[in-house]
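pasting for the record
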Amino acid sequence: MSFNLTEMNERIRQESSFISGIRMEVGKVIVGQNHMVDRLIIGMLCNGHILLEGVPGLAKSLTVSTLAKVIHTSFRRIQFTPDLLPADLIGTMIYNQKSGAFETKKGPIFSNIILADEINRSPAKVQSALLEAMQERQVTIGENTHRLDDPFLVLATQNPIEQEGTYPLPEAQVDRFMLKVVISYPNKEEELEIMKRMATTNGEIVVNPIISPEDLKRARKVVNDVYIDEKINRYILDIVFATREPQAYKLSDLSPLIHYGASPRASIFLAMAGKAKAFIQGRGYVTPEDIRDVVWDILRHRIILTFEAEAEEVNVENVIQRIIDTVEVP
């Protein structure tokens, strides 16, 4: 196995060389936010959708649109509002007077990267139309079913502060997002750089395409080949099962705090994200550190806490930290 692993390491190092180029090009426009950029890359490599949560003004939309340019893909930003209709998203049938027939008018969902801005501002019908497209990667308009473009990636944003007049996503729909990334404020030095850059930039900063959609599809196949040991697979299962049966992992005090543990999607996505993280690092095998690095973004929207946890001011982050600290590392 060691010889093959050496060979795999070399192959991954070569195949992942474009990652530094992506980071560099995005860095021309975006200051800091390395965690968000890396998570967006992981989502693209795993073909998984991402929920971005952060207050306004943290460059969520700008980061996503910049990344689309770097990958040379089509990009559409859809502002979700209470009066948005499913047809505004997926398209509709329109009557052509010349031909006397109905024709399909495709909506903005027919794009490679979709930024669903403030997804919780739209009613359930619109949310379900988007989430069906995410799951099935196809939409039905009239009697015809249309395949969506490949790659097809939905990046949805939520504002954690303002909940008045919003339609929170049901747990079953939130579970379809591979990652939930919480974006924090920049530090003082980063914000100083942002101020200087935005105050002196005349016009748009030009970013160069680094890879094409075809390159991305090839990279995904390589990510699948990253080696994950049986011990790492068991470690993933222990983490996920600790959210469901905490008492079996010497975490009995968490039992009254967790209403529902993580779904099987958590196990699948942890393995996939672990491989993508190893790929980004230019490594041909997954380590426990890779899993511990991505576990927050995969579990934070899959663990439902009880009212007792709220009363005790225990949040999901606290629960994940306890599990990571307690579950034995291989």
